[in-house]
Design brief:
This protein has helices spanning about 5-65, 70-80, 140-165, 170-180, and strands spanning about 85, 90-105, 115-125, 135-140, 190-195, 200-205, 215-220, 230-235. With about 240 residues, the chain is an alpha+beta fold. The strands form two sheets. The protein has a four-stranded antiparallel β-sheet. The longest helix has about 60 residues, at about 5-65. The radius of gyration is 27 Å and the shape is extended.
Amino acid sequence: MTTGCLTILIALITVLGVLVSWLWYRHWHDGNVNSERRDGAFASILKQAHARAGDTDRALETSGITDADALTGVIWRHTEAPVIAYDASRREFTATAASSAHYDAKAILPGGGSGQVTRCFVFTFTHRPGQAWTSRVSERDDGVCRPGTAIGGLVRLAQTRISSMYAEDLTRAGVQKALDPTGRLRSYDVKSAVRRADTVTVSILLSSPDTTVGQCYRFTRHVPGGDGLGSATAVPASSC
C-alpha cells in the first residue's frame, strides 16, 4: 500500500469516526431533550386535570341544583368526560376521561417531529349532607379509559347521523335504524324519542364494544318549522 493510499484510508476512517460519534451524541442528546419535554407534557396534563376538578367543584357548589341529570351535565361541561357514573347511595359522581398533550420532538432530520402523551384520569365528586362538594383525581391505567374513549366516538357518530335525519324520521325506531341499519350492533340502544314543539330529544344507551361500560346520552335536535335538517347536541345523563 502506498503512502498516499494509507493517508486517504486514515482520513476516511477519521471522518467516519467523527460522523459516528456525532450521530451517537445527537441520539443521546435528542433522547434526553425528548424525555424532558415528555415529562413536561405529563406534568401539564396532571396540572390541567386538577384545575378541571377544581373548576367542577366550584360549578357544582354554585349551581344550587340537586337533580342527578343536571349535575351530570355540569360535570361533563367541565371535565369533558365521556363516561360519568352516579352512585345515589354515596351521593358520588365518577367521571372517567383520557387527556392528551403534544410536544415538539427533536430529531436528527430537519423539521423534527411531534410527540403525544396520554394519561387516564378518574374524577370523583362527592357531596355529603351539610358539606361542600369535594373532589379527588386519580390516575389509572390506559385500559380504564379505553371504553370511554370508544363511547366518545359513538357519541360523535350518533350526533352526525341524528343531525342528518329528516324530522319525520326522528322516532325511536327511525333513530335506531339510522344508527344500526343491520340490527346487529350492540353499541346503540335507543330508549326514547320525545318531541316537544320544535325540539326532539332522543335518549340512547351507548355501550363500549366489549359492552363492559355503558352511558346514557340525551341528543337534542332543533326542528324549526317541523321539518328540515339541523345540528344535534349531546349531553350525558345519569339514566335513560
